[in-house]
Amino acid sequence: MDTNNLPTLKVDVLFQRLIRPAKKKDLAKLERSLVAEGCKLPISVWKGTIVDGHKRYEICRRRGISFATMEMPFACRESAIAWICQQQLERKDLTDEYRKYLIGIRYESEKIANLPIYKANRLRGRNLPLEGLDALQDQEGPPEPFRHITAQKIADQYHVSFGTV
C-alpha cells in the first residue's frame, strides 16, 4: 500500500464538521466498494482543501487506492461553505434540527459570499471602476432588501418560512 504517489489534500475542520458523520455500516460498505472497484467519484477540492469526499480520501490514503480530484470554482471560503450546506441538505437522513442548522449556515455564508456582487453592482451604478470595491468599506454588509432576497431564495428552495431561515 504505497501512499507516496497519492496526492495529499488539506482538511478544513469547519468543512468537515458540516458533513454529517456516516454510520459505521455505511463506512464499511464504502470501504468495501473502494477496495473492490476503486474510487470512481473524484474528491471535490477547493485550493487543495477537501470540500466533499473526506471519508473516501481517508480510506483511499489508508488503503493506497488512487483517486482523482475535481477543483471547484468557488470565489471564496463562504461560497464553499454554502455549497457544502446545499449538498448536505439534499440528504434524506437529516434530523429537523440539523437541517435548520445547515439552512442557517448556508444563509449566513451566502450573505457574505454575495457581498462582493452587491458592492460591484453598486459600483457599476455609480460608474466606478470594479477595482474599487474597497470604496464601499463604510458599509458592513448588504442592506436589508439584499439580505431578504437571500433569505427568501433559501426559504423557497427548502420549503420553509422566511422566518425559519
* Total of helices: 6
Shape type? globular
Could you say which structural class the secondary elements and strand pairing correspond to? Answer: mainly alpha
Largest sheet: 3 strands, mixed
Radius of gyration: 19 Å
> What distance lies between the first and last C-alpha atoms, to the nearest angstrom?
47 Å
Topology, number of strands: 3
Largest sheet strand order: 2-1-3
Report low-confidence residues grouped into runs of 5 or more.
127-139
Percent helix, as a range, is 40-55%
Strand content: 5-15%
Element pattern in H and E:
HHEEHEHHH
Rounded mean pLDDT is: 83
Write the layout of secondary structure elements.
Layout: H1 13-17, H2 24-37, E1 43-46, E2 49-52, H3 54-63, E3 69-71, H4 77-88, H5 96-125, H6 144-158
Parallel strand pairs: 1-3
Antiparallel strand pairs: 1-2
How does this structure look, described?
With 165 residues, this protein is mainly alpha-helical. The protein has six helices and three strands. The chain has a three-stranded mixed sheet with strand order 2-1-3. A hairpin with a 2-residue loop joins strand 1 and strand 2. The longest helix is centred in the last third of the chain and has 30 residues.
Keywords:
single chain, 165 residues, mainly alpha, three-stranded mixed beta sheet, 6 helices, globular
Kindly summarize this structure in a few lines:
The protein is mainly α and 165 residues long. Helices cover 52% and strands 7% of the residues.
